[in-house]
Write a structure and sequence with these properties.
This protein has one domain. The protein has 2 helices and 3 strands; from the N terminus they run αβαββ. The protein has a 3-stranded antiparallel sheet with strand order 1-3-2, with helices on one face.
Length: 92
């Protein structure tokens, strides 16, 4: 999994603005943008987050999180999605 471009956002934007920005990004290869909404997650405050990886193995999850932390650019955490039995690694 590679991440080629990072853009820091200094203001809070709406879901519609985020979708518009992602659709206008010329570096994207796919034509559709996938959004999923999860409500009432314990220990995760309500906000918009970017999911950086989805893992079923906790060892792979931890290695990925350590890479992100070592890069110094991400405030990273994860939650467990009981519906898909997967760990979602995200950044705010």
């Amino acid at each position: 999994m590679g991440i080629s471009i990072f853009m820091k956002v200094s203001k809070i934007i709406s879901l519609e603005e985020m979708m518009h920005e992602l659709m206008e990004n010329p570096l994207r290869e796919e034509k559709t943008v996938k959004f999923e909404v999860y409500n009432n997650l314990k220990e995760v405050s309500n906000s918009y987050y970017l999911v950086l990886g989805i893992f079923t193995d906790s060892t792979l999850r931890d290695k990925f999180i350590m890479k992100l932390i070592d890069s110094g650019d991400f405030n990273t955490s994860f939650f467990f999605n009981i519906n898909s039995l997967s760990y979602y690694v995200y950044s705010d």
